[in-house]
Amino acid sequence: MGHRYPDLLVPDFDSSKRKSAIVVATFNLCATIVGGGVLSLPLAFSKCGILLGSILMIVAALVTERSLYLLCLCARITGATSYGEVGQAAFGKYMEHFVSLLIFVFLMFVLVGYMVLLQDIWSDLVEIIFALDRSPDPSTILFWILVLMGPFLAQRSLYALRFNCYVGFASVSMLGLALCHHAIITPIPSSIKLWADTMDDVLFAFPIIILSFLSIFSVLPIQKDLIQPSRGRMLAVIDSAVFGCFLLMLTFGLAGYLYAGDKTNGNILNNANLHSDWIFFLGRLGCGITIMLAMAMILLPARAGLLEVIDVIVNGPHLVPIEGSERMPLVQSSTNGNSNGTMRRTTLMENDLIHYSTTLTMIMVCYFAAIRVPGVAFVWSLCGSSMAFLIAFILPSACYLQIEHQYPTVVRKSWGWTYFSWFLLLSSVVSSIACTVQTIARY
Question: What's the domain count of the chain?
Answer without folding.
Answer: 1
